[in-house]
Amino acid sequence: MKPVLLRPWRDSAFRILALAVCIAALSLASIVLLRAELEQRFIIRSAEMLGGDLMLVGSEPPEASQLDTLAALRQAQVADFASVVMHGDEMLLVSARAVDHHYPLYGQLHIAADRFAPATVVAQGPPPGEVWVADQVLDRLGVQMGEPLHIGRLPLTLTAVIRQEPDQGAGFYSMNPRVLLHQADLAATGVLGPGTRVRHRLMLGGDAASITAANLAIEGTLRADQSLRTVADAADRTRGPLHQLTLWVSLGVLLVSLLCGAAVFLATSQRVRRRARLAALLRSFGASRRQVTTRLLGEEFVAVVPAAILGTGLGISLILLVRQLLGWQGPLAAATGDWIAVLAGPLVLWLAFALPRLLSLVRVPAVDVLGGRLDTHPVAGALELAAALGAPVMLAALLTGSLEELGQLLLLLILLGALLPALLWPLLKALDVGSRRLPLASRLAIRRLSRRPGLTLPLLASLTVAMAVLGLAGLVGNQLLDDWRKRLPEQAPNHFVFNLFEQDLPPLQAWLNAHQASSQPLYPIVRGRLTDINQVPVQDAVTKENDDAQRALNRDLALTAIQPGQTLPPSNRVISGDWPPQAGGVSVEKELAHNLGLALRDQVQFVTSQGTLTADITSIREVDWESFEPNFYFMFASEGLAGQDITWLTSFWLPEGDGARLAALLRDLPHITVIDVRALLDQAQALVTQASHATALLAILLMAAALLVLGAALLGAQAQRGQDNALLRTLGAGRPLISRVTWLESLLLGLCAALGATLIMLAALYPLAQRLFAGALPWSPWLLLPVGLGLVVTLAGVRLGARAQRHAPLALLRQA
Amino acid sequence: MTVMPGESVAITGPSGSGKSTLLGLLAGLDAPSEGDILLAGTAFSSLDDDARALRRGERCAFVFQAFHLVDDLNVLENVMLPLEIQRRKNAGNIARQWLERVGLGHRLKHFPTTLSGGEQQRVALARAFAVTPRLLFADEPTGSLDHANGERISSLLFELNREAGTALVLVTHDQQLAERCHRQLRLEDGRL
């Protein structure tokens, strides 16, 4: 390496600076790439839930002209309708789906050769002449594989059992079992006549640009019954681990940028002090400002670049390793914009935080520097810092694509960054004024902080931000993991069973006990169809164009009632009204309430097998449909379903084992329906494991960056502390006095930073909870972390102070 | 080498000859690798750091070329500092008197960075004499000042020294300053 590259490395401040740039590059590269990977998986998952990148829905098939317009995209056509299947004399109401040979466009279709056979993945739906059905159809109709099933007037051969559909989302709540057939057979069944309610879906796949173009092109051609659904619509409805993690990682980019920027800023401040004499000498020898800038900046730049390259290389390697460990296939997901951020980000960050400080070398008159008067004016220092803060904000804006999601948090951080010194500085000044009658050690400690704004404010701000970020990383990371663990506990129910009668409950319990299966609460179920809202027939109360509402109205809904002593299920959250529903009351799911225009105190009426059922809406609930728990649109008061035909529903966790156990249960209770959700559960659990690993990686990166800032801040202040102590010793102060001053100063610094960090954490708690957890964050011991870190800062300050005391005072005074 | 009470001794010599190191050793700021330094007839250099600091505070004072005032203390607080370290009563009044004496009574609340070099060295002199030292060490006290200010400071130094009857050990390159001392010692090749 050429000497010019090595020269800056002799300075300890430069080594900290280089380490900060290296960690910034490492963190940015790994977080940006990780974010791209997660985002891609999130989009793929949303597309899988939707069935395509774009979907054209209508009650009639799409027009030929529309198909022509969309010819450049990959297409799959699906028709969903309610129908009846027959086997001999047995009939069963089913959710039928007719698919073409392009289905599924995204995701995987899992089928099995028999009721308890292992599942395999297939790329297409059933060929013409065949039918595939859900487990329940076999149980309810007693049909065997290879036997014919009639749909309408067409007999189709049963060839497979459906285990998992790509676009079912949380679809296993549907009361009617799924039946898949080929579209070519649809006309021959004769079930679709005029007036039949069918939902025709054209699923479209392609790259982002062609999807946007198609969206624009088709929008103007939509019939009254048609609508477009995008991935964003699907993504909006889910708050799963991937969504939470993507948001948290986006915030992580901002926080790591801020922290590394702070470390760069602190290290450059020291660097400037050490390079000031050279700059002044160059100026006094007649060098122009430009020459001085070029020389000093050039040297720094050339020396910083290898650190940035090393960090970026390590970051990319880390992500490649993570991909390998998590079994993520395919090329790296990062787009051009991401790569620009990865490659240019560390240098932009360095320039933003270091440049204003370095330029101060040529702004300050040379004579001031040579005369030892280099102190930056606090206002100029604050302006430099404010200008530098723009870089991570811009970087975050670039990386998040839009600031919509994190805008509130970002605004909060900027406000706090600006307000914090304004809040803490008067506190220190007040301490200064109030300290006149305090002992010498206390006065000296307070004045070292209160009378050096140029040193204290950046130090305090950096420590505060670092502590707040460490606390938030711990709090949020831990809460996310906890959230996910609660959502999917180790023994999450992997089977759902319904159509249980009262007399079935003891044999079911005996079977559960015999197989070490743990069961969840029992829910009473009454099938009912919503007929009236506020005594107005629903068909008049709800607009015909509202497709979602129509779908809710044209099928039986599973109504349940709260059992005495039963609490609100963890996957539910009451967003308005009172819980639990009192006599005559019912609680409604939020999205359905929105689609049907239902509000608190509205009256709803259902038709059931026993007549009508009426209740007033007393609460509206948000439901996490991705939880593996039974969830319901309507939950009545405990006696609300009295006198109705009640069956029971429960879920249970069954340990791994052979299918004979379930077969035995179904032999004893042939009328019950058991749904196996192990495949879905495994997929969700794998996702949670991956998200947990990613969260741990982010926490490590954030901690490394925060510790770097703490180190840079404390080391930066060490030289000044050493000099202060040397002078005190020269004036006759003994070690006990100096130790007391160091202890008190470090304690005051640590506690002030802890106070600031706690304030930031408390202020960030609400928007974070809203964004990441769609609710409130409980009190957590992590909120005490800043106080603990304040004590760590105190101890570190004392230790560094003790190290400074080991030097003979004469040596330190000569260095000055 | 012996310095008697009230005596002033100049140590001169070429750059790098070890003048400042010798001064630091005499003042107990550093410990010698061999030999002994006695202060008022009792052991000094063989004491530990804290004991040396205590005795230095009680009996000695220091004036530096670079002034070494505490930037975050005002002028009055700077002069009070060594008095407070020694827990002397009336530190504020004593400091005020000495600052009046060096002509800075009107700048008590100013901070060092707002003073000129000459004014800073006058504060340093007030700080040094405020503790009524038996022995004053001065390391190039006029080295950072222009000629006129240097003259004024050296005159003040010798005047205060005479009034207080303090022994003075002065390191300097300035021959004129050295000649104002009772005795001159030259340090060359490690020998006096």
UniProtKB/TrEMBL annotation, chain A:
The chain crosses the membrane at residues 245-267, 301-320, 340-359, 379-400, 406-428, 455-477, 696-717, 747-769, 781-802. It is a multi-pass membrane protein. Keywords: Cell membrane, Membrane, Transmembrane, Transmembrane helix. InterPro entries: ABC3_permease_C, Membrane_comp_ABC_pdt. The keyword Membrane applies. Residues 253-361 form the ABC3 transporter permease C-terminal domain. It is found in: Cell membrane. Pfam families: FtsX. Its main location: membrane. PANTHER family: INNER MEMBRANE PROTEIN, MEMBRANE COMPONENT OF PREDICTED ABC SUPERFAMILY METABOLITE UPTAKE TRANSPORTER. This is ABC transporter permease.
